[in-house]
Structure formats: structure tokens, C-alpha cells
Amino acid sequence: MNFRRTTILCSAIFFAVLAALIVWPRTAMTRQQTSQKSQATPTIDEYQPKSTLVTKEHKIERAKFPFIDIHSHHWNPTAADVEQLVKEMDTINLRVMVNLSGGTGERLRNTVAAMKGRYPDRFVVFANMSYDDLNTPGFGKRVAARLEEDVKNGAQGLKIFKDFGMELKYANGQRVHVDDPEFDAVFEKCAQLKIPVLIHVAEPSAFFDPWDYHNERWEELKEFPGRARPPAKYPPFETLMTERNHLFAKHPKTNFIAAHLGFHGNDLERLGRTLDSLPNMYVDIAAVLAELGRQPYSAHDFLVKYQDRVLMGKDIYEVNEYKWYFRALETKDEYFEYYRKRHAFWRIYGFQVPDEVLKKVYYKNALKLVPGMDAKAFPE
Ligand SMILES: [Zn+2]
Asked: Does this model's pTM top 0.70?
């Protein structure tokens, strides 16, 4: 009796478990299928596939050689800011930081005092133009005079921001063209003072294109609609390029550093041709690493061919973001994530350049262009 009851109970449990084993996965499968069916196509933000690629990774926290960041912005830095900055710079082998946002007049003097006053060989400050008196005759000559004064007060270059050529207008509504003759006196003064001009002309060409699903900067324009450069309000990209090239051509004794690969990072052959035709033109790689990183073979060959014309720069200062530059320039790592998604939905590849090229990009080219820097602080 007892034995029989136990047998029935065991059989009941056995069949229950068996039934559960057969039915449960089916239920689970059905649930999964249902949830997959009910799941709509993910949005571009929702779709975050994890790469399954296993390949060598070199996380480089510190540049192989001391380097100069030719493109950085520090507005009115305090003593405490500068102390902190130097500590951070030391961790990544950033030897000299070029602050492009020095301003002019008193502000320039204060910035030079705050940075170079404390660490004379760790900082360089570039002056900027003031447009306050743009509509008063003789503007260009006054800017040139102010720049001369700024250089006496410690400025080692001139930075021109992107409003020049796009937003800056005379009182009569006329846009200031990049090659406006009014500014000739300024650029001639730069040649005379032997200081370089770092100039930001235009924006990525995609910002001038329609904001539609074919635009590769769609995400950035969604996040920052003000970055769009629609034709109703702005000159076309090509007009700005023509004006820029004309500016460089008419001041052959002035050295120009076109910021952000001159916005030709997506067409390195064109950039090469432009550099060929303008021997006084240089470029920095600030904030356009993803352009080089998506074409590692072309980027490598371009940097080797134009090794005397390219300078290291980062733009927005963030000590933890330089490592992507080191990794791209110094390794052959493949298919790694870039640090700013809005610049690039794609992953990038290292294009490892030879040490001699790396040294030029990291510091030798900047030492040639910017006066008053101590070359002895860098390797041969
Ligand atoms: Zn900048």
C-alpha cells in the first residue's frame, strides 16, 4: 500500500517535471518571439550593438614623445586652474599647451600672466582680434597695431575663430569675407612679427548639406541644430574654401595653420593638393581624429607624405580624451570606439606612423612655426 502510493507519487512528480521541461521552454520561446515581434525597429540611439571582435588592444595613456597641443582653449584661467592643468599635462606627456583663447589687450596680458607667468615653458598664448571697432575706418591697421602690442605682451600667435567668414558682418549687413582686404594689414603684420595664424574657416561640409537621413552628421545636428549652416543664412562651404585659399595665397610670407585639417579630413587627396599649392599652409588634427581613423591606410600615407605640414591638437580640453589620439597615431589597433559619438557613428582604426613622422606631428612642426619655444625640452 505504502509502496504503491510512493510509486504513484513519484510517477506524478516525474510526469509533472517532464511536462514542465517540454512546455516551459516552448512558453519561453513563444514569449521571446512575441517580444521580438512586438519590438519595433530600434532608433539610432537605441541600437548599441556590442562588438564581438577580439583583437589586440593597446591602451596608451601617455604619448610616446613629449608633445605640443597647438589647439586648446582656456578662457581667463585662474592660478588654481593652471596648477591643475600642469599636473594633468604631466600625466600624458603634454609638454606645451597652446591656449588659443588669449583675447587682446588687458585680457591677453592677464592670460599670459596666469599661464606663462607661472610656467613660462609650459604654455603658449595666442591673441585674438576684437571686432568692436569693425565699422570705424582704419580697422585693419588698428588690429595690426593691437596685435603688435599683444605680441610684446607675450602672445606668440594669432587665432581667428569661426565667426570670421560666416557670422561676422559689417553694419551694412555685408558679410566679412575670409579674404577681405581690410584685414591684409593684420596678416602682413603676422609675417613681420613671424607669428603663425591659426584659423578656423567654415565647418564640416555636412553642416552645409541638407539635414536629412543621408547626412552623416545627422546626430550632431539633431543635438545641436544651431550648427547647421543652411544656404539661406550662410555662404556655401565651397565659397569659404575659395576665400580661405585666396587669403593664404595672397600672404605667402605668413604661415597659416588651418584648424581641423581645413575641413578636408574626409578628402585627403584634396587636402594634399591644397597643401601642394599653398606652401605656407599647415593643418592641425584637432577634433577630426575620427576622419583619419576611418581611413587608416590613407591617413598613414597622408601623414607620411605631408609630415612637415601637420600638427597635433585636441581642441576641447579633457585630459582623458588624448589617449584616442595616441592610440590612433601610435598603434595599429583596429575597430575601436571613438570618444565623441556625435562626430562619428563609426569606429576607428590606428594608423601608426613612423617615429620620425610622429615627432614632427607631436612637436617639431610646432617648434618651427611658433616663435619663442624651447626646442631643448624635446628629443632630437
Ligand atoms: Zn578650437
From this structure: yes
